[in-house]
Amino acid sequence: MRDLIVSIALCGCAPDQAAKEELLALARAIEGASSYAFTINALTTGKSGGAPDPGADADPEPGGRGGARRDVWTVEFERGRPMHFTKGHAEFFRLARRYVALGRNDEWGRVELPPRTEGEAARADKLRGLARMAFEIDRLPLPHEFLAGLDARIAEVTRTGQDGKRRYVATLLPETVRRMMGGRAAKPGARGGGGEPGEPEPDDGQEAEDESEPEAGGEPPSAPPRSSGPPTDAPAWSGTLTVVAGDGGVERIELDLHSKTATGGRDVNRRIEIRGVNATTVNVPAPAAKKLEER
Question: What is the pTM of this model?
Fold first, then answer.
């Protein structure tokens, strides 16, 4: 990895471009890793509707809708094996979209989720206990997925160094932030560049299908704009991706996401500590593996 960074630094690229190339090389190392483990610490503040944010607790701390929510998950990934998730005393394994959890009697049992096509708010509202936690897992951002295709999701990149670590800060494109925070796409005839916050979308680098419909009574696309200036209530999406790397590669990822809409603002901070790249083994107990194989 160090040789790659040195070769990029000597390639004659502009400073920001060189930093971006280094960041993309680090992202590809995680995207193609055979295994790794990570801990995600998520904090959400401000107004949030519908389903919980990926990695955020379903129950807000004191303060109501405008309060803060924090949650911590530890995850082990090994390509071709079930993924292992723990939070406090809760323990899950996931294979594709099949989940098993360790119950109160120390027995492994299947946990069923409704299909994703039902709509996220409806899915979240009907879930309790282990099923609710499995829903949280279903929405967790996985580094090897959301770092895939990173080049198309970021703008400028800056790099600093301290204590032998390299720190890369990338500005996320507004559309990237909107998708990460679950904002709905702008409807034809609507003002602004994006809709109100909706249900969080998986941070897997895949483009979501836009199912939005034109507003009733909305103006046809050929109609002139209502105002010559930018609307004051247009939703605004902004955020940064920070990657901290050492000689062994990526050590920490931070996502700072912000939304401001007519109904309020929301801030999401996710801190992801990565370890054991290409050196993590997922050990699945035989009873859990048997339950995962059941159809």
Answer: 0.73
